TrEMBL record, chain B:
TM annotation in the entry: 7-27, 69-90, 102-123, 158-178, 198-216, 260-282
Span of domain ABC transmembrane type-1: 65-281
GO CC terms of this entry: plasma membrane
Species, as recorded: Actinophytocola xanthii
Pfam families (alphabetical): BPD_transp_1
Superkingdom classification of source: Bacteria
Entry similarity comment: Belongs to the binding-protein-dependent transport system permease family.
Alphabetical UniProt keywords: Cell membrane, Membrane, Transmembrane, Transmembrane helix, Transport
Membrane topology: Multi-pass membrane protein
Name of the protein described by the UniProt record: ABC transporter permease
UniProt cross-references to Gene3D superfamilies, sorted A to Z: MetI-like
PROSITE patterns, per the entry: ABC_TM1
A Gene Ontology BP annotation from the UniProt entry: transmembrane transport
UniProt keyword Iron present: no
Length: 287, 291
């Protein structure tokens, strides 16, 4: 944080101006609370409110008491537990595949640097400029042809084709001190040992970043799992929720929405720094 | 150290397999499929540019293009200035700045499907809907939100802006932190007011970032899918059918087998338009962005 921003110390010293800024910031805070936190608090409230109250007085706070049973009903009777587990498994698999692909490719391109490395990097980078919609139909047909439909592989494997993760890892590896690699080589470490015992342990920060991005992206994904997992029993929360809406009572449905939001919020709170300092890049690149 | 030999190949193998099968392959295939008539039963048949002609002759395409442009324009009007203003204000917060930016980012954390389904309930057209209750308190409404062809699209944009603004705020905050304080000091020596400092120091220093977020927003909104798909399914009366929704409908709406040729043709056309637009944009703004 730098010492000053737009306002000068002289301006901060002026009383009317300071008061004005304080009012503006108070209003901003109120607005952010209502707009940013408000919907989430409302959802948390609605998750434990009987349907009738939510329908008649959506903004009243527990006019007729709390109904905690909603959460249990959603979890067990509407099978949210199963879809929750599916979501977790999908996220774990996407995470593993992405990490495997990104670290090995990043290592080959940034540390081993074969002669054809530039060409390979170029072909990987080029995919960043292809909108994902172009891939949708042929990718779907590939999955159909290889009979991966209704298996998690259909989600896990394509998740590995993430050029942005490779770029992140590659850049990080390229900035590691090469003297360390040379020293390891002098000590007799081959390329595989160098990867496993030197480069990976030195790369915890970037592995953390890629992991969080992978898990969050997988948790948010909707269209792709919708296409390749038509079997409801295999679907993650994001795909199942819109279908549930049609036949589940409102209070239970809102409880299901609330349950689906818990893990992303926890991840955000734990890795706040990552998100609030440039993690936003993630949404910007792959649209 | 430059390795030839086997090791780089071994390490590149997972990437080559995954990209070959799930990225490079499908990209090539999509070009091939756009000039073929394919169904899963009989073999593919070369049809030249028929798919493109068929898509261009579809009256729904022009509705979808119009709707997508309308979405993009509304998203710019609502969504482009708000994060900038919020970020400039947050940047002057001296205590608990982290709280401000965390609150601004919070909507981005909500899974998009959950956000849309939640807002769908908020948009309830009855007098007891959440938003109608709020508007009713100040004597407006009730509005029909998603059920009226005129208000449906603005409603989608409202949710989309809410869902996306936070990440743009974070980008702007990072850019604002990089503005050298000396520039403000120099402006103050010249007697610049706060407004002039914003205009002559803050905004010019954000120019590069603003140009990038602008084009990214255009590219993003041109591919809007989730909101129309889950909120309205393209209705009422196709008022919210977007280009991506049309591609989806071509390929997947008919459970008996889709028109994959038309879908790939349209997605390639969209990609080409976006590529040309971005290239022009960067060419036109090049002189302007280097500060």
């Amino acid at each position: 944080m730098s010492g000053r921003g737009l306002l000068s110390p002289a301006e901060w010293a002026s009383k009317p101006l300071r008061r004005g800024v304080r009012v503006v910031h108070g209003l901003l805070l109120a607005l952010l609370l209502v707009v940013g936190l408000g919907p989430m608090l409302w959802l948390a409230k609605a998750a434990v409110t009987p349907t009738r109250d939510t329908l008649r007085q959506p903004l009243a706070i527990f006019p007729n008491g709390i109904d905690l049973a909603n959460l249990a009903t959603a979890w067990t009777r509407v099978d949210i537990d199963r879809h929750f587990l599916n979501t977790v498994l999908l996220a774990l698999g996407c995470w593993l595949v992405q990490l495997l692909v990104a670290t090995t490719a990043g290592y080959a391109l940034a540390v081993l640097r074969p002669r054809y490395g530039r060409l390979v990097t170029g072909v990987v980078l080029a995919t960043l400029f292809v909108p994902s919609i172009v891939l949708l139909v042929p990718l779907y047909l590939t999955v159909v042809r290889t009979s991966m439909i209704n298996t998690f592989w259909a989600v896990w494997l394509p998740a590995g084709a993430n050029a942005f993760a490779i770029v992140l890892v590659q850049r990080f590896f390229a900035n590691l001190p090469r003297e360390v690699f040379e020293a390891a080589r002098v000590d007799g470490a081959g390329p595989y040992r160098l990867f496993w015992s030197v480069v990976l342990p030195m790369s915890r920060p970037i592995i953390g970043v890629v992991s969080v991005l992978a898990v969050v992206a997988s948790w948010k994904d909707f269209l792709w799992p919708l296409l390749v997992l038509p079997d409801p029993a295999a679907q993650p929360l994001s795909v199942r929720l819109p279908a549930l809406q049609r036949y589940v009572e409102l209070d239970v449905f809102l409880a299901a929405l609330a349950i689906s939001t818990v893990i992303p919020v926890v991840i955000f709170l734990v890795f706040q720094r990552l998100f609030l300092r440039g993690g936003a890049l993630e949404g910007a690149v792959k649209g | 150290m430059r390795h030839g030999g086997l090791a780089p190949l071994v390490f590149l193998l997972p990437m080559v397999l995954v990209f070959g099968l799930f990225s490079w392959g499908p990209i090539v295939q999509s070009v091939v499929m756009s000039v073929q008539r394919t169904n899963m039963v009989t073999g593919a048949e070369f049809v030249g540019l028929d798919n493109f002609a068929q898509v261009l002759a579809d009256p729904l395409l022009w509705t979808a293009v119009r709707n997508t442009l309308w979405f993009a324009v509304l998203a710019l009007v609502f969504g482009y200035p708000i994060p900038l203003v919020v970020a400039v204000l947050i940047n002057e917060v001296r205590r608990r700045r982290g709280l401000f930016s965390a609150l601004a980012y919070l909507p981005v954390v909500v899974p998009p499907v959950v956000a849309v389904l939640l807002w769908k309930f908020f948009f309830d057209a009855g007098p007891n809907g959440v938003f109608n209750t709020l508007l009713g308190a100040v004597g407006i409404g009730p509005l029909r939100w998603l059920q009226d062809a005129d208000t449906a699209m603005p409603s989608l944009v409202l949710e989309a802006t809410w869902a996306a603004a936070g990440s743009t705020v974070i980008i702007y905050l990072a850019a604002l932190a990089a503005v050298p304080p000396e520039l403000y000091e120099a402006a103050e020596i010249d007697g610049a007011s706060i407004r002039r400092k914003v205009w002559h120091v803050t905004l010019p220093n954000l120019r590069g970032v603003l140009l990038v977020t602008f084009i990214l927003q255009i590219i993003g909104t041109a591919q809007v899918f989730l909101e129309p798909f889950l909120f309205t399914g393209g209705g009422p009366a196709n008022a919210t059918t977007t280009v991506l929704l049309l591609i989806y409908d071509y390929a997947f709406a008919d459970s008996l087998g889709g028109d994959y040729g038309a879908a790939t043709a349209l997605s390639l056309m969209l990609a080409a338009v976006l590529a040309v637009f971005s290239a022009l944009y960067f060419r036109l703004t090049r002189s302007w962005s280097t500060s």
